[in-house]
Write a structure and sequence with these properties.
336 residues, mainly beta, 2 helices, 20 strands, elongated
Amino acid sequence: MSRSTSLRRACAATASVGLAAGLAWLPSGPAAAAVQTELMVQGNASVDTTTCPLTSGGSTTVTTPIFTHGKRTRSMNFSATYTNTGDSSDTVQASGHYRATWSVAKQGRDLRKAAVVGAGTVSLDVAKGKNTACDPSAAAEGGGLLEFTEHHGGWFYIERTTPAVQGIAVSEVVHAGTNDPVQFELFQGGKSHALSRGFSKAGQFDADLFVGVTAGNSGVLTKSAPRSSVSMVFYRAGSALTGTKGAGRSFVAFPGSVSCGAHRATLRWKSGAGHVASGSFSVNGKHRATDRSPKAGKKIVLGHLKSAADITVTARLRLENGGSAAATRSYVPCKG
């Protein structure tokens, strides 16, 4: 596999100990494999090694063999001691544990979803506290590396959740053909939850998703094992972001995607249409069509959809018994 040249490595090196150094991209695999991935779990410390060299232990990295889909779990423990060469009482003991589960799902030849869930602890025992000359920090983390294809243009949705400790979360997607970043985020801090997205044309992609915990300065101990997660889902341009919601879905079928070429959404009355007196249909709150003679199999075509807009289609139905029902479904834009 090709080596990523994106910004994330440089940024991660300054924000999280050893993260960038450990994220070696996957070795070359079968050319026919459209999705290749591996899970990596690692723990390490960083100090001013000129002043405080490693005197025992060291970093730990555990990986899985390359695979194409499914779920893998790995864990690691690490311990390292550093000692100031000019002051033997100035020592740093770093240790940690991390366990991560990496899940990858395909859609045909392409990637559909990937997610990492991790939990662990990390600590620094700094003998001289803030007076140390070693400048220590440590991290325990886990995540997945990916090379994959998407034969259709579309959207990458990235969701992260971190607990109320000093955690890290990294997500990156790069179009390998152009080396253009599709999405990049490096988060370091406390409790958080965020959703971001990026659009790309079809092609080959490199990606990584990592989570972990960190410690630095005079020493931090995380006594519990907080859980963090980052997930990535690919939606083809114009495809449904959600299922159909509302009681009205019993009477009208919404499409799995809108037509990006024709700029329209085509709905269809179901077999229960005989119980409906009329239906009013809107796109993003604006009325587009009314049908006063519902019939099973009959189509409702909503045209002139905007390519770069998120799309929400709503059906409001008046029933023959005097009641009402509604249904709605949302779709990602056709263009970024």
